[in-house]
Design goal:
- The protein is mainly alpha-helical.
- The chain folds into two domains: about 90 residues, Uncharacterised protein YqeY/AIM41, N-terminal domain (Hypothetical Protein Yqey, Chain: A, domain1, Orthogonal Bundle); about 50 residues, Orthogonal Bundle (Arc Repressor Mutant, subunit A), CATH 1.10.10.410.
- It has seven helices and no strands.
- Helix 5 crosses helix 7 and helix 6 packs antiparallel against helix 7.
- The longest helix is centred in the middle third of the chain and has 24 residues.
Length: about 160
């Protein structure tokens, strides 16, 4: 069976949530679709008629997940567990469409591979190393956390 692209999977999940009358899930899926449409419109202005590809959709989903993790943490600290729980349930729906996150050892190995692939040896190569990692692992690692690790490796 051929794998569906992300856009099709999200669309199918949206239709299923409507059939199931699952309001919370449907709400999150509609937020995902709206974010993708916003990005589609932005790239069409730049002359790209196709819209965003799976890689960009993964980046959108990753960003949405991180935003909700931050919000959930803020709500928990403020004692608003009801709102934190809602954010957490939205994260669950969003992460269904994200690939499995790499663990720390896998992230370290990916960084080592990228550095070796580029023969990177100084902090000036950091942008190139990050570009390689983003091209191969979008949606599978938190680049905000990976950046400092790459910087440490290249400056030592």
């Amino acid at each position: 069976m051929p794998t569906m692209d992300l856009r099709s999977r999200i669309s199918a999940a949206t239709k299923q949530a409507m059939k199931d009358k699952d309001a919370a899930r449907l709400s999150t899926l509609r937020l995902i679709n709206a974010a993708i449409k916003d990005r589609d419109i932005a790239v069409r202005v730049d002359g790209n008629e196709v819209g965003v590809d799976d890689g960009e959709i993964l980046a959108i989903l990753g960003k949405m997940s991180r935003q909700r993790q931050e919000s959930a943490k803020t709500y928990e600290e403020a004692g608003r567990l009801d709102l934190a729980e809602r954010e957490t349930s939205e994260i669950g729906v969003i992460e269904e469409f994200l690939p499995r996150q790499l663990d720390d050892e896998e992230v370290d190995a990916a960084i080592s591979d990228a550095i070796a692939e580029l023969s990177a040896n100084s902090i000036r190569d950091m942008g190139r190393v990050m570009a390689v990692l983003k091209s191969k692992y979008t949606g599978q690692m938190d680049f905000g956390a990976v950046g400092p690790k790459v910087k440490d490796r290249l400056s030592s």
